[in-house]
Predict the 3D structure of the following.
Amino acid sequence: MTSKGAELEVRSVFNGLEVDYSFGYTNATYKKLMISQNNTEVNLQGNHQLFTPKITSLLAAQYSISLNRKQNLRLLLRCEWKYLGRQYFDLANTIDQSAYHTLNTRFGLTTKKVSHMFWGRNLNDAKYISYAYDFGAVHLGNPKNYGVTIKFTF
């Protein structure tokens, strides 16, 4: 297999606003791949590596503001855009997932010991395959969903 790629990460912080961006590029193909199929040998040279999208990207912005310094009470708001390029789930590259993106958010109140967060994932309700196998098993990605997380720190 030959795998080449590059990654880029950038972070900026401005008075309570954090902006993060990451980008990854991977070109991973098999130099030589012989498999048995229907009592014959099949050459899959040049096919793409499993579960490896060529492009991945994440843009996130998070804003935090102090509401009460004495109690260390903060309001937090975070938004994310995540992109995954086309990826393959079998050696023959016949089961694939086209590129897709998801939107996520989280907001709430935090203190030193407790945080209350409301969140939403896949807000654009993207339909995608999370993973699949060539023997027929396929797991779809989670649809749009919402929740609450309460975290205690000791």
